[in-house]
Design a protein that fits this description.
This protein is an alpha+beta fold. InterPro entries: N_methyl_site (IPR012902), Pilin-like (IPR045584), T2SS_GspH (IPR022346).
Length: about 170
């Protein structure tokens, strides 16, 4: 109980409840934005890893003066032919005893990494020139309408990553 002439300080129960309601509304609006940021960051990460893998394959081919391949791989030791890059990929040297130079683990569940032409390997000769170009789409099937990343790697090794919302990410 307050003494005469002094004023009680503090919050009433109603003021506290109103503050909590406002806080809950703000958090419920912000959480979906964080999910979008997390998704976008992961897409960028996979795109960057794919570009780095192609650059490593090209530089190793030049350094060794021998063919080096970036290829899809689910086991981390040999190239796969199914074109499902989300299962992981490797940079591997050619020759009598192929050597795995780098392994990339599988992408998180629900993500797809595919080449538009069904390519499962990207090889660079000892001169640094590739046998073919690649156009990868990196996406997540859900939620519908999520952005995608397009990774273009030319036969000379030049790469670019662009963001797009076009197309679907069907399995």
């Amino acid at each position: 109980m307050a003494m005469a002439g002094t004023r009680a300080r503090g919050f009433t129960l109603i003021e506290l409840m109103v503050t909590l309601v406002v806080l809950i509304v703000l958090v419920s609006v912000a959480v979906p934005s964080f999910d979008y940021i997390r998704l976008s960051t992961r897409l960028n990460s996979y795109a960057t890893d794919l570009v780095a893998g192609s650059q490593l394959a090209r530089s190793e081919a030049i350094k060794r003066n021998a063919p080096v391949t970036l290829c899809a791989s689910s086991n981390g030791t040999s190239c796969a032919t199914d074109g499902q890059w989300e299962a992981g990929w490797i940079v591997i040297s050619s020759g009598a005893t192929p050597t795995v130079i780098q392994k990339q683990p599988a992408a998180a569940s629900g993500y797809r990494i595919r080449d538009s032409g069904g390519l499962s390997a990207l090889a660079f000769e000892g001169t640094g020139v590739g046998a073919t170009a690649a156009n990868f789409t990196i996406c997540r099937a859900t939620p519908v309408g999520t952005p995608k990343r397009l990774v273009k790697i030319s036969a000379t090794g030049r790469s670019s990553v662009t963001r797009t919302d076009a197309g679907s990410c069907a399995a």
